[in-house]
Amino acid sequence: xxxxxxxxxxxxxxxxxxxxxxxxxxxxxxxTAPATSSFADDFYRSGIDWSSLQAPPSHRRRPADxxxxxxxxxxxxxxxxQAWGIQKPPRxxxxxxxxxxxxxxxxxxxxxxxxxxxxxxxxxSDENGASRKPVACPFYKQIPGTPFTVDAFRYGAVEGCSAxxxxxxxxxxxxxLTKKWCHxxxxxxxxxxxxxxxxxxxxxxxxxxxxxxTEYVIDGVKVTFLEANHCPGAAxxxxxxxxxxxxxxxxxxxxxxxxxxxxxxxxGRISLLYLDTTYCNPKYKFxxxxxxxxxxxxxxxxxxxxxxxxxxxxxxxxIGKENVYLAISQALEVPxxxxxxxxxxxxxxxxxxxxxxxxxxxxxxxxxxxxxxxxQHENLKKYLETLDQRFLAVLAFxxxxxxxxxxxxxxxxxIKPSSRGRVTIYGVPYSEHSSFSELRDFLKFLRPQxxxxxxxxxxxxxxxxxxxYFREWLKGT
DNA sequence: GCGATCAGTT
DNA sequence: CACAACTGATCGC
Length: 477
Known about the structure:
Elements: H1 2-6, H2 39-49, H3 77-84, E1 142-143, E2 148-150, E3 163-165, H4 171-174, E4 186-189, H5 190-200, E5 207-210, E6 215-218, E7 221-227, E8 235-240, E9 246-249, H6 263-266, E10 272-275, H7 289-306, E11 310-316, H8 322-332, E12 336-337, H9 340-348, H10 352-355, E13 358-359, E14 367-371, H11 377-386, E15 393-399, H12 406-410, E16 418-420, E17 423-428, H13 436-446, E18 451-453, H14 460-473
Parallel strand pairs: 2-3, 3-4, 4-5, 9-10, 10-18, 11-14, 11-15, 12-13, 15-17
Antiparallel strand pairs: 1-2, 6-7, 7-8, 8-9, 16-17
Helix pairs in contact: 2-3, 7-8
The chain binds a DNA duplex through residues 132, 135, 154, 170-172, 176, 178, 180, 252, 278-279, 283-284, 315, 317-318, 320, 371-376, 398, 400-404, 432-433, 455.
């Protein structure tokens, strides 16, 4: 049924219901039938040529062995664009060493192509006995018609990539970045840039911070970061190519009405949308963040009234969810205690309203921020004991993206905490990704010509399902 | 020791 | 149980 929505009626059988995807998530065997327009087929077809989609800039250095450019063939973009049904290919390669508009060009090192002699070829092509096959950069992390990748640091030097974008500082996006990084400039927001330097020890010469809502020209492409409403420093990335095509990469984001007001999303048409599809399933419903924050604050106040010596704990990953504990801090007029490493991170944001509330004394504040993983009954009980009678009970909140109970998505007051002795833990549906309906509203507003999901793409059935939703939402476009 | 990859955790 | 986002163990060099 999914395939039918996806396009031509006769395509169903030709779908490689591929359980055997290759390293890139492409079906491993070629389709046996003529062209179709199913999403899985699109994946397959684009997988054929994507590696050579962008000829590397001519000035790129090559290994000294004089190897000829293996992938500088014709502009395969052409095939690609046709495969995706996006009109015509750009007339010519726009990838030249145009300096960054912000004047950061001088500090941008030119990428040093993997010349270490290590094999780093495209995953599928394993010449003789490649026991260790390197994983190729999946096509959905590469931006066609540009020498750009987004959140692609775990693939070594990506062929043809001269600028690596990092949408935000979460592990599953920066993974692969180490202090040995030498493959090219990393473009990200200033806040993310600080974290990259501070926590990953990346050579500053490679880190290129860009301001939000400011247009830069990078390798001939106009690039603008927009607020993503995800975690601190997270950006949507808007690309405007010289041929007029505009692409939007959402990184991770939570779509909202106010996001729709951005001038870059109000005018023109997005040809390609790289979409954070984390919760692209109708089972994912959750309230606005403000409602959840309101609930958390009210609950904290209620517990404190009953037991003034209650310790409020909020769980968090490295970055994200700050507004939950900031709101408690403001409402209760108490500082925020957290350990030294998180304090360092939070201060690096450069947010005065947050910084001024951070305390390094665990006894002086009834509001503590702990790693999400540590919010377990046993753990919190022990934690309470270490605080030596200063507190007599723990009220903990774990802000999770997904909601198991239908109730929590609809009516916050129906949320039942888990209590053991003096420890109470609430799971609250505070999400920094879009809900299903938010994704739907965003797509109906944006009406992109093509959507590439970037999350949950590992399985073909899932991809087709998501594509079916997109078709439905964009019907009549 | 370092990084890449896998397994495990909430 | 789910999910994102880790965290730790193991392997190879």
